[in-house]
């Protein structure tokens, strides 16, 4: 076995990925399955789950706390343990580079509640449910997909989205401090703009160019560029990393965005 194989070994580990049917979650799930992990791919979109190979597909809406608890219990019953969880499922509503966020007195309350239900509460449900079996086994790695939008103001992202993502960043820090005594590590990744289905609709060259221009490296990320981080956090390579917020953003945080 090479040093790289040893350091990033995930063989036989049991990994749950939420939002695994598309985009970043799909890339994470397929990477780890391809490297020998047992991957439970959860998503509320069953049609998307059917397109995945070599994973255990699990229809799940993370906004339903009881369903998340049941799903985690079922994973542990069937596989005996739970080593890594990627709390990744998320949505975006409103705003975008062609449609600015609008002002604080005008955001839609429907949008606010619907988004927090998934991007904040859904993540909390997932972290909460995962902590129980991990405490019993006294090990585990929890990884939350946050966003650069949770680390700064962003004129092109909705109020609900920036607030939910800022919330999960501090959820990660609090849980990292709390769970360290059980040797459970909790970290966040903060992607910049990636080419996924989160915006809905057809790929739009103009929006893609504008998002690309908002990043120091001058382009959007490809979901495959998360493969290394998936392996890092699911393996012993990150054994001394907890409470971190790891930007994978092509340098988006280095430059400010302005409305024109
Ligand atoms: P995506 O739309 O391609 O994939 C998200 C997946 O999550 C979809 O398959 C969707 O069905 C699923 N999902 C949505 N709500 C769910 C729920 N309630 N329960 C279970 N599954 C649900 O989007 P993506 O870009 O891959 O997003 C993944 C994560 O990355 C999200 O948390 C998103 O906020 C975050 N993120 C994305 C970007 C980006 O530019 N794409 C940037 C920063 C952060």
From TrEMBL:
The keyword Oxidoreductase applies. It comes from the Bacteria. GO terms for biological process: fatty acid elongation. Keywords: Oxidoreductase. One of its GO terms (molecular function) is oxidoreductase activity, acting on the CH-OH group of donors, NAD or NADP as acceptor. Belongs to the short-chain dehydrogenases/reductases (SDR) family. This is SDR family oxidoreductase. It comes from Amycolatopsis alkalitolerans.
């Amino acid at each position: 076995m090479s040093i790289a194989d040893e350091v990033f070994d995930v063989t036989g580990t049991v990994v749950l990925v939420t939002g695994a049917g598309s985009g970043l979650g799909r890339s994470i799930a397929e990477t780890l399955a391809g490297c020998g992990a047992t991957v439970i791919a959860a998503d509320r979109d069953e049609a998307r789950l059917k397109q995945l190979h070599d994973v255990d597909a699990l229809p799940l809406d993370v906004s339903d706390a009881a369903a998340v608890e049941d799903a985690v219990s079922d994973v542990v019953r069937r596989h005996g343990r739970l080593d890594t969880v990627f709390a990744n499922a998320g949505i975006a509503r409103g705003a975008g580079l062609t449609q600015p966020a609008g002002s604080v007195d005008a955001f839609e309350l429907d949008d606010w509640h619907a988004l927090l239900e998934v991007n904040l509460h859904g993540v909390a449900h997932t972290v909460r449910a995962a902590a129980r079996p991990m405490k019993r086994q006294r090990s585990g790695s929890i990884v939350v997909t946050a966003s650069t939008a949770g680390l700064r103001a962003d004129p092109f992202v909705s109020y609900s989205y920036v607030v939910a993502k800022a919330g999960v960043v501090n959820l990660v820090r609090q849980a990292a401090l709390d769970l360290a005594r059980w040797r459970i590590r909790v970290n966040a990744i903060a992607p910049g703009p990636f080419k996924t289905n989160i915006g809905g609709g057809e790929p739009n060259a103009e929006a893609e160019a504008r998002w690309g221009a908002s990043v120091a490296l001058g382009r959007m990320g490809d979901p495959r560029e998360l493969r290394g981080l998936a392996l890092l956090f699911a393996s012993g390579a990150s054994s001394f990393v907890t409470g971190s917020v790891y930007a994978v953003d092509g340098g988006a945080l280095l430059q400010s965005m302005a409305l024109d």
